From TrEMBL:
Keywords: FAD, Flavoprotein. Signal peptide: none annotated. This is Alkyldihydroxyacetonephosphate synthase. The active site is at Y453. It comes from Planotetraspora kaengkrachanensis. It comes from the Bacteria. Belongs to the FAD-binding oxidoreductase/transferase type 4 family. One of its GO terms (molecular function) is FAD binding. Coiled coil: none annotated. FAD binds at P135, F136, G137, G138, G139, T140, S141, E268, G269, A270, F271, G272, V273, I274. Its cofactor is FAD. Residues 103-284 form the FAD-binding PCMH-type domain. Substrate binds at R396. The record marks R319 as: Important for enzyme activity.
């Protein structure tokens, strides 16, 4: 077994990632926000860590003692620091509540098991004493996936999996690595790099999210056009449930009934806790090339990226920003307010692999992009995107501090429905918020369809949480009416649960409830999350 040399630093408790990267917006950008959106500053200053209001811890001493007997007393924490840092995820409503000092959703205890057997034992104790359990990886959920319902439970425990952070084995012949779920993505890449390998999974949450979280939420990375989604990479899992251990994945593919991996993938901790992952890996690329292209309109850009997705050659990275996102410069967060590509729509295309393969695919894709109306902008826009690809959440923190409500939502549909879905969501957000700035990009492409990722900025009202809740409802209704899925890669959590129920219908919801009842009869695993 191998463990990472790089420690997993805690995230900022009231924002994203590294506190040192949260910077104040430049004055010209603040002026633009005031002039065009009416942003005047937050209604109240953000609370400090010591001002967070926490409910009294509710777990009985006997339960705490039973948990400590499993993990060791040092790995059952009830101090304020641990409880605050395991409160909610990183959606804008989550952050607005924390900035207001509202710690009402804090767990009563944080439990840090060190093995599969310890996880299983913790689940048995919690089921026996009716303690709700929230599996906790990197804390990056943006859909309310880390807030358990308390009603009917003796308390809530956050199950922090950060001690399960080992590379267990590498099968180079099969190109499969067994890894534990608490590994953060950069740690996993560090361990695999020593074997000349990579997962190739780089979502915007890459710096802080964990492998277990990727599987539990069906994550999709920015290089999914080349490497595939995370659920494509999972060839096997070990899962602890209150009823026992589930092992899935004996072969790459099988006709032995429905694939039980698919029951756990996307289940967000409601069916069990993933304690080991067998993952398909790739050779680490020898060369990476990113470049920019400009298209006159979003419709022309859509036609170009669809042709590449359907006919090839497939770039490793393929993204298309609409006119507004291109003009504002959000595709390159460090240059907000100053587009480096002029008018039109920016396409970022990237190629990773061996030198000959990168050259071959790049040349053939360039011919397609040029033939469909694209203007080559050279490597600079692509390299700037690659350099700042994980920075947008920090920009959100800065915008929140300036008094703007800013949030994202995403969806997906078949190609024929993309224009209708795009307009429906934009119109719904505009109607709900007045005159917001609504930006969009195609974040992932497939032969049959694509995902749309929206970013919304507007001036905060006196009730910014309620303000966004109304906009989110309107957008969710528009997504379902236009034929889209309620989420492409963020997951269901609590925020999408009602719309998810409408999407799958009552029979689909009954199937999920039946699986839940069989694996978790006491209902202690992440209650209130995902299942309609």
């Amino acid at each position: 077994m191998e463990t990472p040399s790089t420690p997993a630093e805690p995230m900022l408790w009231s924002g994203w990632g590294d506190p040192a990267k949260a910077t104040e917006l430049p004055e010209p950008v603040r002026k633009l926000l005031a002039d065009f959106l009416g942003v005047q500053g937050p209604a109240a200053p953000a609370a400090t860590f010591g001002e967070v209001r926490l409910p009294a811890a509710a777990l009985p001493p006997a339960v705490l003692a039973a948990l400590a007997a499993i993990t060791g007393a040092g790995y059952v924490r009830t101090d304020d620091d641990a409880r605050i840092r395991h409160t909610r995820g990183r959606s804008t409503p989550d952050l607005l509540r924390m900035r207001a000092g509202d710690g009402s959703d804090a767990p009563d205890a944080v439990v840090l098991p060190g093995s599969h057997d310890e996880v299983a034992a913790v689940l048995r104790v919690c089921a026996e004493h009716r303690v709700a359990v929230v599996p906790f990886g990197g804390g990056t959920s943006v859909v309310g996936g880390l807030v358990a319902s308390r009603e009917g439970f003796a308390g809530v425990a956050a199950l922090d999996l950060s001690r399960l952070n080992r590379l267990v084995s590498v099968d180079v012949e099969s190109m499969v690595a067994e890894m534990e779920p608490g590994l953060r993505a950069p740690q996993a890449e560090e361990l695999l790099a020593s074997h000349g390998l990579t997962l190739g999974h780089f979502p915007q949450s890459y710096e802080y999210a964990t492998l277990g979280g990727f599987a539990a939420a069906r994550s999709s990375g920015q290089a999914s056009a080349g490497y595939g989604r995370f659920d494509d990479m999972v060839v096997g899992m070990t899962v602890a449930t209150p009823r026992g251990t589930l092992e899935t994945g004996r072969a790459p593919k099988s006709a032995a009934g429905p694939d039980l991996r698919q029951v756990i993938l996307g289940s967000e901790g409601a069916f069990g806790v993933i304690t080991s992952l067998r993952l398909r890996v790739r050779r680490a690329p020898e060369r990476r090339v990113y470049e920019g292209w400009r298209f006159a309109t979003f419709a022309e850009g859509l036609a170009a990226v669809r042709r590449l997705a359907q006919d090839g050659p497939a770039p490793t990275v393929l993204r298309l920003s609409d006119e507004t996102e291109t003009l504002v410069g959000l595709a390159q967060p460090g240059e907000l307010g100053s587009s480096a590509t002029g008018s039109g729509c920016l396409v970022v295309a990237g190629y990773e692999g061996g030198p000959d393969d990168v050259s071959y695919r790049g040349e053939r894709a360039a011919a397609v992009l040029a033939a469909t109306g694209g203007v080559h902008l050279g490597p600079e826009p692509g390299e700037k995107w690659a350099h700042g690809r994980f920075d947008a959440p920090y920009l959100r923190d800065s915008l929140l501090a300036a008094g703007a409500t800013v949030e994202t939502l995403e969806t997906a549909c078949f190609w024929s429905a993309v224009p209708r879905l795009y307009e429906a969501v934009r119109q719904a957000l505009t109607a709900a918020l007045g005159s917001p700035l609504v930006m969009c990009h195609v974040s992932h492409v497939y032969g049959t369809g694509a995902s749309l990722y929206f970013t919304v900025v507007t001036a905060q009202t006196d009730d910014p949480v309620g303000q966004w809740a109304a906009a989110k409802r309107a957008a969710s209704e528009a997504i379902l009416r236009a034929g889209g899925t309620i989420t492409h890669h963020h997951g269901v959590g609590r925020d999408h649960r009602e719309a998810f129920g409408a999407e799958i219908g009552e029979l689909g919801a009954e199937i999920l409830r039946a699986v839940k009842e069989r694996l978790d009869p006491a209902g202690v695993l992440n209650p209130g999350v995902m299942i309609p």
